[in-house]
Amino acid sequence: MANRNARSGAVSAARKKQPPWLWIGVTAVVVVLLAAAVLAGGGSGGKSKSTKTAAGVEQTRPVTVIGTPLPKLPDGGTDPAIGQEIPEVDGASFDGTPIDIRNDGKAKLILFVAHWCPHCQREVPLLTKYLKSHPLPSGVTLYTVATATAATSPNYPPSAWLAKVGWKAPTMADSAGSKAADAFGLPAFPYFVAVDGAGKVVGRTTGEISTNDFAALAAKALGNR
Amino acid sequence: VEFDVETVSLFLALLAVVAEIATAAAIVLAVGGRFSPALRRLGRQAVEAVAPQALALAAVVAAVCMAGSLYFSEVAHFPPCHLCWLQRVCMYPLVPILGVAAWLKAGRVRPYAGALAIIGGCISSYHIALEHHPEWESGVCDPKNPCTLIWVKRLGYLTIPTMALSGFALIITLLAVSRAADRPHPSDRPRSEVHG
Lengths: 225, 196
Description:
The complex is a heterodimer of chains A (225) and B (196).
Chain A: H1 2-17, H2 21-39, H3 47-50, E1 64-66, E2 88-92, E3 98-101, E4 107-113, H4 118-133, E5 140-146, H5 158-165, E6 171-173, H6 179-183, E7 191-195, E8 201-206, H7 211-221
Parallel strand pairs in A: 4-5, 5-6
Antiparallel strand pairs in A: 1-2, 2-3, 4-7, 7-8
Chain B: H1 5-32, H2 37-50, H3 54-75, H4 82-91, H5 94-104, H6 110-132, H7 160-182, H8 191-195
C-alpha cells in the first residue's frame, strides 16, 4: 500500500511539473495535416475536378411529356400500369442529340438510372458486359434515362460515368426535376419498363436484376411471355 | 487558402488515419506487452504520458468527429442517412460527457462513455459493410437517401462511416488508457500477493 501511495504521489507530482508536451504534439500533428490537406488541394477524386465536362455536354436537359403519366410502381401486388399506354417523352442526350421515347410501333426497354445509386453502378456494367455478347433482339430498342442527377451527389457527372463503363444505349438526360422519371412512375433505382409494339406497358421492375431477368423483360416487350 | 469540401474531407481523412495508427499502436503495445518486456515497458511509459490527458483527448476526438459530421451535413449539404443519425446519437453526447469528465477528473464516467463509443463503433462497422454490400440494405436505391450511398471516399477507403469508426476506436482506446493508469501495476502489489 505504501509503495502504491508513493507511486501515486510521484505520478501526481510528475503531472504537475509536466509541460503540456502532449497537447503541443497533438496541435503540431493537426497543423501539419491541415497544411498537407491544403497543399494537396483536395487531392484526386475531387468533386470540383470530377464535375468538369466537355463543352456542350449538359447533365440535365429539358424534357417534354405528352400523354397520361404512368402510376407509381407499387411495392407489391398487381402493377396498375400494365396495359396502359406510355406517355411520349421528348428530350435529348447529354450532348444535345434529340431522343424521343414515343409510340413508334417498336417494342422497347427503358432503363432509368441515377449516377449516385450503388445498385445502378453495379447493374450498368453487368448489362454492358452482357449486351456485348448477347445483343437485344432486333425488334427491341433499349433506352436509358439518366435521372435524379445532382452535382453534389457521388459519381457525378452521369455522362462521364456511363462513358467510363462503356454504356452504348441511347441515353436521355432527364430534366432537373426528373420529369421523365415521374412520367414513368419511378419508385426506386434502377428501374426498368418494358413496352410492347403497341406502346403499352408489359412489365416494370426495380432494383438490380440478373441478365436472365433482363432478357426475359426484352422477350416480354416482344410479346414472348 | 481555400477550405472547400475536398480539402476539409482530406483533412478529416488524414486525422482518421492518425486515429487508426494510434489505435493500432495501442493494441500492439497492449497485446505485445503480454509477451515482450520491452513492449510492456514502452506501453507503461505511453500510458503514464497519455493517461493524465486521456479523457480530455477523447473529448477533443469526439468534438472533432461532431464538427466533421456537422460540416458534411450543414456546409457540404450531404444529407445524413438513418445510420449516420444513429452514429451521431452515440458521438454527440460524448462531447459534453467526456469534456465534463476531463474537467472534473471523473474517471467513473468511462463505462458509460465506453458503452456509447462501442455501440457507435458497431453501427459504423455495419454502415461500412453496407457500403461494400448495398444488397444487404435492399436491392434498390431509395431516391431519398440510402445508407449505401458513398458521399466521400478519400485515400481509397476513408468514407464517412470509416472516419466515424476511426473516431470511436480512438475514443475507446483513450478510455482504456485512462483506465489502465488507475489500475495498480503488478509490480506495485505486495510480494506475497504477487506470488501467493
